Amino acid sequence: MNTRSQVNLCIKQASFCYNMMRFLLPVILCGLSIPAFCPVAKAEQWAQWRGPDSNGVALQQNASTQWSATDGIRWKTPLPGSGISSPIIWNNRVFVTASDGVALNELHIICLSRQDGKLLWHRRLWGTAPTRYHGTKSSMASPTPITDGQHLYAFFGTGDAFCVDLNGNLVWHRSLASEYGKFENRFSATSSPILFKDLLLVQCDHYGNSYVVALNKNTGVNVWRNERPDSWLSWSSPRLAPVSGSSAVELILCGSLRVEGLDPATGKPLWTVSGMRHECIPTPVFGHGLIYAVSGPKGPTLAIRPGGRGDVTQSHVKWEYRRGAPFVPSAILVGDYYYLIDDQGITSCLNAVTGKRAWQKRLPGGYTASPVATRDHIYFANEGGQVTVIRAHTPRYQQVARNDIGEPIFASPSLASGDLFVRTSRHLWCIGGQTN
Predict the structure, then answer these.
(1) What is the CA angle 231-235-237, rounded to 5?
(2) What 8-state DSSP symbol labels residue 147?
(3) Picking from 5-9, 110-114, 191-195, 210-214, which range would have the lowest pLDDT averaged per residue?
(4) Cα(97)–Cα(110) distance, rounded to whole angstroms?
(5) Domains of the chain
(6) CA torsion sign, 54 to 58 to 64 to 70?
(7) Omega prior to 297 cis, within 30 of 0
(8) How many CB atoms lie within 10 A of CB 9?
(9) pTM over 0.70
(10) Number of Cα atoms under 13 Å in the Cβ half of residue 244
C-alpha cells in the first residue's frame, strides 16, 4: 500500500471513530446521568408525578407558549367524574385516573391515544374505603399513577392500589385501607406512588395510623412496611435522591414537622431534619446535590444535603428561606434557580445554590397545580384556567405569555416531546407540540 493510500485509510478510520463517538457519547452520558433506580429512561416519557426526575421539568425540549381555548389545541377529550391526578405519558399512550359516584368510590383508569385523544381503553374499578375530600381540589383520584413501560400502578384515596398492564388488564389489587385502616384526613389521600427497582413505594400519612409501605411491583405483596406514629397529616409524595460521591439512593419523605431519609430497599430510617409545618403537601425537588423541601403556609424552604445519619438539622441544612412558602403547589428547580408559587399567586425565584432571592412577583388567580418547565420556559397554571409562561434561567422576571383555556385547572400539567397536557375540571387537553 502506497503512502497516499495509507493516509486515505487513516482519514477514513479517524472519520469513522469520530462519527461513532458522536453517536455513542450522548448514549454514554445519558446512561451516566440516569440513576439505576429511575424507571424512566427516555426524555420524551412523562411516566410519573412530576415527570422523569420528579422535578416537574422536561429539559430536552420546548413546548408551545401561546394558545387559547380554540387556537393551538391538538385535541381535547372529555373525562368522567372528577380528579386532580396528572396525566402520564408513555410512547403513544396517555393515562389518567378519575373517580365518580355518590361517594366517589367508582374508580377509573383511562388510556387515550396520544395522537388524537381517542379512547383506547377504560378500566372501571371499585374503591373499598372512600373518605372525605375537598369539593373542588381533591377526589379519590388525586394521586398520579406511574408506569414502568410494562405495567401501570394507580393508587386512590379509597386506599386501593391497582396494577394493570398497558392494555388495562388487572394484574393485582391491594386494599391498604381494609388492611391498615381508612384514611382519615379532610382532603383525601393525594400522595403519588413511586418506583424503586422492583418496589412500589407508597406514603400513607393521615390522622389514623400513618405508614410507608414497599410493595413488590409484580405481585403487590409487602416487602417492608414502617409505621410513622409521629406523622399525622401529610399529602406530600415521596421521592428518591442520590447521595453525592456514592452509589447510595435515599427515599425522601416530607411529613409532620420534619423531612426524613430512609433506605428504599429496606425502609431503614437514616436521618431526619426538623423544620416542616404540621401539614405537608408539596413534593421535594432535587438538584445541585441538594433536596429542596418546603411546607406552608408561612413555612420554610430547606436545602438539605442527603447522606446524613441521625438528626442532621444542624449539620446538613445548607440554607433556609422563610418567605413565600406554598400550602399546596410544589416548587420547581430549573437550572440554577428555584421557584416557589404560593396558593395566592406570589411567586419567588431564589438562587438554588445560595437561597438568595432573585425576584418576587404576584401572578393572577389562586393556585393548586404545581408548575412545570421545559428547557427555556416555566408554566404556572391557576385555578381559573390561565397559564402564565415565563422565561427560565434568568435573574429577572420575564413573562412570555398568558393563556386562558377557559376551564378551571387544579391538576398539575404534564409534558412530553413538545406536547403540553393540561387536565381541567372537564377535559384533558393536548396543546401544540409535535404530531408524533
Answers:
(1) 100
(2) E
(3) 5-9
(4) 6
(5) 39-431 (2.130.10.10)
(6) negative
(7) yes
(8) 11
(9) yes
(10) 10
